[in-house]
Design a protein that fits this description.
This protein has about 260 residues and is of the alpha+beta class. Helices cover about 30% and strands about 30% of the residues. It contains three helices and 13 strands; from the N terminus they run βββββααβββββββαβ. The strands form three sheets. It has a six-stranded antiparallel barrel with strand order 1-9-12-11-10-13. Strands 2-8-7-4 form a four-stranded antiparallel sheet, with no helix packed on it. A hairpin with an 8-residue loop joins strand 10 and strand 11. Helix 1 runs antiparallel to helix 2. The longest helix is centred in the first third of the chain and has 37 residues. The protein starts with 10 loop residues before the first strand and ends with a strand.
Length: about 260
């Protein structure tokens, strides 16, 4: 009598939820000798959905930049009036010098003064351009449509190496699963996957399918809460695309650890 074939066991592995798009780390502007400016206002929190160009944070240097820009604009307006009047003066002295009613030296003095005013105007224009660039940087804007994954700097804090905010470039979620190299031969693209939270971060089960399998074997990075777990295990990274209804349930849970079970083919 033939021995019945043993059913293929499901592969189980640990992983974490990640945004389907790129993750952008947004930094604060450089403040030159004054260092990086502090966060003066924070307009978003972890998990908020944001759109491209939306202001996420405002830095403490903005009020001074606005005041400096107002001062430069006032100076430019004054120089515009001075230059217009000086051109009239130069014109009158040219006419007077042409008929011998004025010395050429006086005309040259008026022309030199006009050149000085025009030079001051060019310097003020350059200063305004610089201030406008700094002013634009005094507000942190989202470069993409997406979701706030993590706020690193709070109001009153000076941002560090992690920047101010991490934004996921998509509201859709995937799962990055680390499958033991000894089990990877039982995983294939398109295979159905069920996912549960390792620590109860969400209820029920998520559904997904294998999107792609990394061609490289690497050391494990998603560690189990089990202290006896093998931290040096060799694994293969497997990307799992979540079904739309599952992705919607965990759209604000990037980084949460999950247990994946791959349905036997």
């Amino acid at each position: 009598m033939a021995t019945p074939a043993r059913p293929v066991e499901a592969v189980a592995a640990l992983g974490r939820l990640e945004p389907a798009g790129d993750v952008r780390k947004l930094a604060a502007p450089s403040g030159g000798f004054g260092g990086t400016p502090r966060v003066a206002e924070l307009k978003v929190a972890d998990g908020d959905v944001v759109s491209q160009g939306q202001v996420l944070a405002v830095f403490e240097n903005r009020p001074k930049l606005l005041a400096d820009l107002t001062g430069v604009q006032a100076r430019l307006q004054t120089l515009k009036i001075k230059i217009r009047m000086q051109k009239r003066e130069v014109g009158r002295y040219k006419q007077a010098a042409a008929v011998g009613a004025s010395a050429l030296v006086l005309l040259e003095e008026k022309q030199d003064e006009l050149v000085r005013f025009e030079g001051e105007r060019l310097e003020a224009l350059a200063e305004r351009r610089s201030l406008e660039v700094d002013l634009a940087k005094s507000e942190l804007k989202s470069p993409v449509d997406g979701v706030v994954l993590r706020v690193h700097s709070r109001v009153g804090e000076r941002p560090g190496v992690d920047g101010v905010i991490e934004v996921g470039a998509s509201q859709e979620m995937e799962a990055l699963i680390e499958v033991y190299e000894s089990d990877i031969n039982r995983v294939s693209p398109g295979q159905e996957v069920s996912l549960t939270s390792e620590n109860g971060g969400f209820k029920g089960t998520l559904r997904g399918t294998v999107l792609r399998i990394s061609p490289q074997v690497r050391q494990r990075r998603v560690l189990s809460t089990d202290p006896t777990g093998d931290a040096d295990a060799r694994v293969v990274e497997v990307r799992v695309r979540l079904a739309p209804e599952s992705a919607a349930r965990v759209s604000r849970l990037a980084g949460m650890k999950v247990i994946a079970r791959f349905k036997p083919s």
